[in-house]
Known about the structure:
By secondary structure, the protein is an alpha/beta fold. It has a single domain, classed as Vaccinia Virus protein VP39 (Rossmann fold, 3-Layer(aba) Sandwich). The protein has twelve helices and seven strands. It has helices spanning 16-29, 41-55, 64-82, 98-101, 116-125, 145-155, 174-185, 200-207, 211-216, 245-251, 259-266, 271-278; strands at 87-91, 109-114, 134-139, 161-165, 190-198, 237-244, 281-288. The chain has a seven-stranded mixed β-sheet, with helices on both faces. Strand 2 (109-114), helix 5 and strand 3 form a beta-alpha-beta unit. The radius of gyration is 18 Å and the shape is globular. The N and C termini lie far apart (44 Å).
Amino acid sequence: MPAVSPTEPPIENVSDTARWVAVYRAMESDRRDALFRDPWARRLAGERGVAIVRAMPNGRALAWPMIVRTAVMDEMIASAIRGGTRTVLNLAAGLDTRAWRLDLPKSLRWIDADLPAMIAYRDDMMRGETPVCRHESVAADLREAGPRRELFAHAASEGETLVITEGLLIYLTADQVRSLAGDLHREPMIRGWISDLASPFLIQRVAKSWQSKLTAGGAPFQFAPAEGTKFFEPLGWREVEFRSTWLESKRLKREMPMAWLWKILGTFMPAERRREIERMSAIIRLERM
């Protein structure tokens, strides 16, 4: 897989973001006190993934929110499975390896869905590795309503289903998210939905460093509803869990570089500003209403 040359954008398409994030999982896995271990992450990221991190401003320093997101979602998924989830549908799965690396029941059905090229690449790189549960790879363009609804019906055919959209919604428009949420709600057995969620404040912060490079690669950050999880309520989904990435980074001891300075500055900030920082990004769990 080619590396990034100085004359081309580090991100060429939205699928490149999967290689980018895989590098962060590899970085965490190398730690003695790793929150999770993904022995396949470096292989999946390849040279291009490493080159993307090097080319992005503060690429390594800004690994912490991705690592926190992965660890918190692992916890939420485990909780949902203990609560009766029989199928996990992982949308825009990218290079995720949870079906191989998590301690999952053998009877659990796990479906990874993504664009055909990404599914083919991940499956080829994982050839010979054995998933811990019943695993399916589905090649589908989630932008197409017909195939998307067929996929959702297929996933919900064996009982209570949990949907994951890790690192997906932020690349969509509000109308695309509405359409996705509506189609998920059409299936009564799709009971839960785990995702990350950005705020307008996060988009403003990112605009100073990453947004121009993401836009050049056709993958700008877009979805960041000012109303937070209330955006989903008219679509049939309500918040049952909200984990601030900022607060979770403290709990997990994966705080951003110079976090101590932000803590000092925070003592002089109005309460509303501190709340804005705490809620600038989160990992959320929704349930159907």
